[in-house]
Amino acid sequence: MKRILLFTVLFCLLGLAGANGQNTPTRNTYLKRIDELNKELKKSPVENYPSIYHDISGMHGKLGNTALEFEYYKKYIHYRDSLNVSYYKNKLDAIKSANEKHVWELQSDLYSEQIKRKNIQLILTGAIVLLLLLLIIDLIRGYRRDRNVIRKKREHVAKGLNPKSELLSRLSHDIRTPLNGIVGMVEVLRQTSLSEKQEEYMNLIAAASSNLLAILNNILDYTNIDPERISLEDVPFNVHQVVGDVSDLMVEKTNEKRLKLSTFVDPRIPDYLNGDPMRLKQVLIHLLKNALIHTETGEIFVSVELKEKYDNAFELNFSVRDTGRGFSKPELDNAFMLHDKTGPEMDDPMFEVNLGLFISRGIVEKMSGEIGAESTVGVGSDFYFTAVFGRADNIMPKAKTVREKLLQKLNVLVIDPNQTSLNIFARYLEHLGSQYGLCQKVEQAVEKIKQEEPYRIIFLNHDAGDNLATMVRQIKSAPKAKDTSIVLISSVGSLYTSKELISAGFEGVLNMPVKMFEMFDILVKICPDCLNEEEKESLAPPDLSSKKKVLLVEDNIINEKVARVSLERIGHSVDSAENGLIAIEMYRSNQYDLILMDLQMPVMDGFAATKEIRELEKQRGVPANERIKIVALTANTTETDRKRCFDAGMNDYIAKPFNHAELLRVLES
């Protein structure tokens, strides 16, 4: 490169030297003399004009400017006192003749001067362009060289990680398969008649299983640390449920440290959105672990706000605030960067938290969002992120409206010593248009009850007093509270039996952190008289009047059982096939309304089977709008997997482990 630059500089210098080579000193002397004579002419008396004009004419003659020589000689003749007419006439004729002869030479000289200037410009322009091209070529070569170096380094690191990654990937798959069965069977059990305590236990098993799946995703992320490798699903999910599951998972750990954990989900957010609930849980768990490890006293508050509503999407703002030690600016600047630690240091809980924040940044960026943090040392921190989710069809569109109408009919009183909890209730009840009151102490509540309209429901936090029974008696002592139903708010509600709660005067328990959908469910149970029959029916899972005949193509016995039980329970007829080849034969000889197709199977996979079925439909001349609906059953609903499904001819997909709501969605659509 240095040689090329030197050559370019020499090329420019030589060109400039050659272009200016004809500017001789003699010519410059004549021009300078003409300039001096012209200045002298302006100062001299008229009697000196002839000699000056004669000299100027002679200078132009030496320069070859015959036209100017002729003009100045005429002026010289004009100012002479006595003339030898014949002599000067012959002299003028000679100059005129010479002028005609040298006119072409003069024009040639002028043209040559112009050519020289243009040549200089072209040489300089060419040199600059050449230099720029050479620089661009060098930059491209350097970029390719650096990219190759980075690629080789990545390949070198991958050689060390791949064996572990592949092993963990296989282990993850082996664990995921039976875990999908557990999640599925829990979903089936939740659809049966359960006691209140059994339902609570089922919910805990479901939340724990779901979060175990998130941990498996974490394991794979730890072995594939590059955020670019993170893939996202795109399935309908309930953001209220996601936040509730995460808080249920973490509440035990916050209780151990005597921290208050609260959550709030903006009630304006739709019940169902399209996105990746498992990845969203991952991020929230990582941020909560970060808050938990840095907070010794006070509280942790998780909030989800509707930031922006688009035509087919919603942008949400998530925040995890704590009252921990806080972070300095240098710590915040590096919070989401991966710290280089190896060996024993990787066992440090701080390394796990740092790695979780790093992975969270990659997930959030994949969700078209941004992640950041604000903090004050000694006060606390706020770790926040945004994410964009698609609009999804509501499985039970009337249910939300009915629940909101129910609360509008009720007058509610909340007794809680924690101001954050009171603020959360206030925002929920305000949005729903409820009449409500807020108190931090039982004594205040009793006075409020005496002075205002009777309250239909009272939510009482177990921390508002020392003894539950005593607090209930204090409230019931007010005449207006005789017909009031009291619900216990407690982070340890599971420690009380139904008998103990009833004997203490409670009609239900709302576990902390408070979740709006659980509050609705309790109110429906306590106040059945507030709903008419039509409203009650809208809250129940829809009973599909159109029974369908379904072909279930699934090689895993557990997954097949879960899907079969879920479908048969709501009245559908189910046939099973363990691979794609058998499915094609069954499709040939039977009439089905829907095919649920697993993707990875022995003998023939779901992609090949779907293509074959679509080809059979073409041969039979089945119109496009009458072709059978084929829905993929897949554990990985990444963009690539979805594209493969649609390219093969499938109409939709369900992520494993699938739930009852998902089955209802594909059956109704």
Describe the protein.
It is built from 22 helices and 17 strands. It has 669 residues and is of the alpha/beta class. Strands 1, 2, 3, 4, 5, 6 and 7 form a seven-stranded mixed sheet that branches. A five-stranded parallel sheet has the order 9-8-10-11-12, sandwiched between helices. The chain has a five-stranded parallel sheet with strand order 14-13-15-16-17, sandwiched between helices. Helix 5 (85-190) crosses helix 18 and helix 8 packs antiparallel against helix 10 (349-366). The longest helix is centred in the N-terminal third of the chain and has 106 residues, at 85-190.
- Indicate the percent of residues in helices: 55-70%
Task: Decide which structural class fits the backbone.
Answer: alpha/beta
What's the number of extended β-strand segments?
17
Number of helices: 22
What is the rounded distance between the termini? Answer: 66 Å
Radius of gyration: 44 Å
Per the principal axes of the C-alpha atoms, what is the gross shape? elongated
Mean pLDDT: 77
Beta-strand portion reads: 15-25%
Largest sheet: 7 strands, mixed
- Low-confidence segments, given as residue ranges, are 17-24, 342-347
Question: Topology, pairings included?
Answer:
Blueprint: H1 2-19, H2 25-43, H3 49-63, H4 66-78, H5 85-190, H6 196-223, E1 235-237, H7 239-256, E2 260-265, E3 273-275, H8 277-294, E4 299-309, E5 313-322, H9 329-333, H10 349-366, E6 371-376, E7 380-391, H11 397-408, E8 411-415, H12 419-432, E9 435-439, H13 442-451, E10 457-461, H14 468-476, E11 485-490, H15 498-504, E12 508-511, H16 516-526, H17 533-539, E13 549-553, H18 557-569, E14 573-577, H19 580-589, E15 594-598, H20 606-620, E16 629-634, H21 639-648, E17 652-655, H22 660-668
Parallel strand pairs: 2-4, 8-9, 8-10, 10-11, 11-12, 13-14, 13-15, 15-16, 16-17
Antiparallel strand pairs: 1-3, 3-7, 4-5, 5-7, 6-7
Helix pairs in contact: 1-5, 2-3, 3-4, 4-5, 5-6, 5-18, 6-7, 6-8, 7-8, 8-10, 11-17, 19-20
